[in-house]
Amino acid sequence: MRASFLFYLAFAGFLDISVASESRPLLSEERTSGDKKAFVIWRDLDLGGQPSRIIVLADAATEKIVFSRYTHQRLTQAVWNRNSNRCILWDAPNNAGPTCWFITVDTKRHWKITEFDPFKQLDEAYYKTGDQHLLRNGFDDLHWLDDHTIEFRIYHRMGKYRAVLDTSKALNRPQLTAIHDKP
Asked: Fewer beta carbons within 10 angstroms: which end of the chain, N or C?
């Protein structure tokens, strides 16, 4: 475990290159798996111009970087299931065009990362209406109901929905229940 701790410290130090920003506070957050064998960390960087964010998934057990993403400074979150073998990571869920990843790891520390679109079926239904206005979708309150099922709220031009997604099935097709007729 000592090597993992040193790996983490070295990684955290590498990301500590940000400069103070007067316009928006710079963030550094992490979400560690329950078994402490993996973590997702994001860090804001102000290198001049618009602040940026780097998102990294690291496997502390193998001391490897599994995934990284360079993006804009905006809301980022990650939620691990209780068995620490599944994680949902999202970037900008409250800012049109969010990106979501479903992450799994098996007992041999083999990782699989799948990008998915939780809005796909609503977007398809919306465009069938003939309306072509810009969609500014969002979601929040994402949490695990059990080891393979997540629940979250979706905000869409077609309304507000409770979404339940069984991650052992098609990721782009959550079960939707309308909360309100209009957003």
From this structure: N
